[in-house]
């Protein structure tokens, strides 16, 4: 990986004895990424557990597939409305207060889901969860640009985004165990215990943000003055090579809104979101409908594909980083995901649990492997002056994928199967892959970055 300041140059600038660029960035990664990884892990646990809750919650409360799907989608209504303002607020008040506020409120809202008894209450608590959580992911992506120049972000984003997959190792077996073994304990049903147990750790971790997360290099007490200067020069070098410094207000928003490639990137993220929420929301139901009645066994089967997906994300992110190329890597991954989902439709139709798990593994691995590559491409394309608004807007537009659970639920209710929804996803994968391969080639080439 290239360095922005050579060791001799650093020494001449008086940055000894801690002027080794690689050592400084390695220490930053050790300090920031494990904590942010855990935060994102909890984020995905609180998103994915709604899929397991439906195994009991729908029957307990008398919710139809359409009602449950709409309730799950209400999360994204609040999320979309408040995501860009949240990212701009991060610029104003700092990452520490913003992330603490997000985690405290979303943890409380997630836990409060246990009190739901009617569809209206379900819609309301899911909407509030979206409002409170809005800005977390794009805020972290933006926060990492405060520390790392463009040449160093792909691998860091891969390490951070692996929490998406790692969450399944906790969500699937733990949620299945809670649903099975805590049902009826002290008068609460299993799904109520699940929301409480999996929501409260987010509140506790949110409190730790004040002590563990500096707003930026200038507030990091574990960096020396020389090391902070090293980072400042590195980021200044990035600005001189094409990233401007500052600029996250109305002018940046207007520039981003006028950029057609923002909508192309958002479409790619939208398709990824639809497919991701399909797997998170419907995998437990698919496995159960193939004859697996034991809820704990459902959780164990659901986690198997994620073992392979975790390795795929790590390997593919490193591969893209070594070649310093994102566009074609992302395109290839989406084509592979389309093939995996096509196999899934065939496997479900033939009632094969084994082939269903193979298909989910193949399609899901390709899907998650594309994620860090995608955000590395986004942060390469967006100049620093547009990064705050641009990252948030791409993720906001993509969050419209939150309506997909309601759409899939309606399709299943109407047709009695998931086949049509899966075929639609296959088509979207191919459209997005071809559009990105063609639409981003000149954009990245003209900016002096690998196409």
TrEMBL record:
Keywords from the UniProt entry: Aromatic hydrocarbons catabolism, Membrane, Transmembrane, Transmembrane helix, Transport
PROSITE patterns (UniProt xref): MFS (PS50850)
A Pfam family: MFS_1
Membrane topology annotation: Multi-pass membrane protein
Domain Major facilitator superfamily (MFS) profile, residue spans: 32-444
Record localization: Membrane
GO molecular function: transmembrane transporter activity
Transmembrane segment boundaries: 32-54, 66-85, 97-117, 123-144, 156-179, 191-213, 262-283, 295-316, 328-348, 354-375, 387-409, 421-440
Top-rank taxon: Bacteria
Listed InterPro entries: MFS (IPR011701), MFS_dom (IPR020846), MFS_trans_sf (IPR036259)
One GO CC term on file: membrane
Descriptive protein name: Sugar phosphate permease
Organism: Pseudomonas delhiensis
């Amino acid at each position: 990986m290239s360095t922005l300041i050579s060791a001799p140059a650093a020494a001449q600038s008086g940055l000894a004895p801690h002027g080794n660029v690689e050592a400084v960035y390695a220490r930053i990664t050790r300090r920031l990424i494990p904590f942010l990884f855990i935060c994102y892990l909890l984020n995905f646990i609180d998103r994915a557990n709604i899929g397991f809750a439906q195994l009991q919650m729908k029957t307990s409360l008398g919710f139809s597939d359409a009602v449950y799907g709409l309730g799950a989608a209400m999360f994204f209504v609040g999320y979309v409305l408040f995501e860009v303002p949240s990212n701009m607020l991060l610029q104003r008040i700092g990452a520490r207060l913003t992330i603490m506020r997000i985690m405290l409120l979303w943890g409380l809202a997630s836990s409060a889901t246990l009190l739901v008894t009617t569809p209206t209450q379900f819609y309301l608590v899911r909407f509030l969860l979206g409002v409170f959580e809005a800005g977390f992911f794009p805020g972290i992506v933006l926060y990492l640009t405060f520390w790392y120049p463009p040449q160093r972000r792909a691998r860091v984003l891969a390490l951070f985004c692996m929490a998406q997959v790692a969450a399944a190792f906790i969500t699937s077996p733990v949620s299945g165990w809670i649903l099975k073994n805590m049902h009826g304990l002290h008068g609460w049903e299993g799904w109520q215990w699940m929301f409480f147990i999996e929501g409260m750790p987010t509140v506790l971790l949110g409190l730790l943000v004040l002590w563990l997360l500096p707003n930026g290099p200038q507030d990091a007490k574990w960096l020396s003055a020389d090391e902070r200067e090293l980072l400042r020069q590195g980021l200044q070098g990035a600005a001189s090579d094409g990233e401007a410094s500052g600029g996250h207000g109305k002018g940046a928003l207007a520039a981003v809104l006028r950029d057609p490639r923002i909508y192309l990137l958002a479409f790619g993220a939208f398709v990824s979101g639809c497919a991701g929420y399909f797997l998170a929301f419907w995998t437990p139901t698919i496995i159960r409908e193939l004859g697996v009645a034991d809820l704990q066994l459902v959780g164990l089967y659901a986690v198997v594909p994620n073992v392979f997906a975790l390795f795929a994300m790590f390997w593919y992110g490193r591969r893209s980083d070594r070649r310093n190329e994102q566009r074609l890597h992302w395109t290839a991954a989406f084509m592979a995901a389309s093939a995996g989902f096509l196999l899934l439709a065939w496997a479900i139709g033939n009632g094969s649990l084994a082939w269903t798990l193979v298909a989910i593994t193949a399609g899901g691995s390709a899907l998650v492997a594309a994620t860090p590559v995608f955000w590395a491409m986004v942060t390469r394309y967006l100049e620093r002056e547009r990064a705050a608004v641009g990252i948030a807007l791409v993720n906001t537009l993509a969050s419209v994928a939150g309506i997909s659970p309601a759409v899939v639920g309606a399709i299943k209710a109407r047709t009695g199967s998931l086949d049509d929804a899966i075929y639609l996803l296959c088509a979207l994968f191919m459209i997005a892959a071809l559009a990105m391969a063609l639409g981003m080639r000149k954009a990245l080439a003209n900016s002096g970055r690998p196409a």
